């Protein structure tokens, strides 16, 4: 059995659950990219893959997250082609796709559907959409990320596994294709699996609210945004947007722009 998740933080609790329940045991693999941001036009072609790699390089280079640049590691496309080979070579092999109700996971799900479409009946989805779980303190909660779920609760969650239906294989790739053609910079989850798109500057206006007339480290501004804003995204993307606005001369800035803890900014004097 192959298990796929979309966030590195999800690996640990699911791995622990696999140790607790042998029926879950299998290969746990990670889709590394965040398909809720960045270019997705021609995403399944060499040129589209290169455009996306180039964009991520522009976002991550000279930042706190430069180590995330995928210069030598296996790409998601290469990983999915290996999974395709496994499914072709072993007719008993199955794949379980784990996703919670957030734009990151849902975009990842849409992206990988085209790789498993030919394996209908062996591709399963565990979409934990608006489902209650019990947290570490015994209270009921509704997780938006898999890693929020205690490992023992994953054992219960396995009962939710279901085959991806023929209609989903028909409709969902078409929905993703429309988004790819539109090719805006930000994808948002409206509810269930409904995605909409916005421009690259979608988070800018909210991010600007945390920039005051006093000097603050960029890292503090990003932390405030991530902890207080209703609609958030990854810190690397936010830092890139912050630097983009700085390059537009929108704020006063001092310090080394490479690291978020090394420069400060404030509203224009």
Mean pLDDT: 93
| SSE pattern | EHEHHEHEEEHEHEEHEHHEE
- CATH class membership of the largest domain: Alpha Beta
Beta fraction: 15-25%
Q: What's the story with the biggest beta sheet?
A: 5 strands, mixed
Helix/strand/pairing category: alpha/beta
- The domain count comes to 2
Number of beta-strand segments:
12
- General shape: globular
Label the CATH architecture of the largest domain. Answer: 3-Layer(aba) Sandwich
Give helix % range.
Answer: 25-40%
Radius of gyration: 20 Å
CATH topology annotation of the largest domain: Dna Topoisomerase Vi A Subunit, Chain: A, domain 2
Report how far the terminal alpha carbons are from each other.
59 Å
| Number of helices, where a helix is a run of at least 4 consecutive DSSP H or I residues | 9
- Sequence stretches where pLDDT stays below 50 over 5 or more residues: none
Spatial order of the strands forming the largest sheet: 2-1-3-4-7
Write the layout of secondary structure elements.
Layout: E1 2-5, H1 11-20, E2 27-30, H2 46-60, H3 76-89, E3 95-100, H4 103-116, E4 123-128, E5 133-134, E6 140-141, H5 151-157, E7 162-163, H6 166-182, E8 186-191, E9 194-198, H7 204-208, E10 216-217, H8 218-228, H9 235-247, E11 251-255, E12 263-267
Parallel strand pairs: 1-2, 1-3, 3-4
Antiparallel strand pairs: 4-7, 5-6, 8-9, 10-12, 11-12
Helix pairs in contact: 1-5, 4-6
Description:
- By secondary structure, the chain is α/β, with parallel strands linked by helices.
- The mean pLDDT is 93.
- The protein contains nine helices and twelve strands.
- A hairpin with a 7-residue loop joins strand 11 and strand 12 (263-267).
- The chain has helices at residues 11-20, 46-60, 76-89, 103-116, 151-157, 166-182, 204-208, 218-228, 235-247; strands at residues 2-5, 27-30, 95-100, 123-128, 133-134, 140-141, 162-163, 186-191, 194-198, 216-217, 251-255, 263-267.
- It has a five-stranded mixed sheet with strand order 2-1-3-4-7, sandwiched between helices. A three-stranded antiparallel sheet has the order 10-12-11. The protein has a two-stranded antiparallel ribbon with strand order 5-6.
- Helix content is 39%, strand content 18%.
- The radius of gyration is 20 Å and the shape is globular.
- The chain has two domains: 2-178, Dna Topoisomerase Vi A Subunit, Chain: A, domain 2 (3-Layer(aba) Sandwich); 204-267.
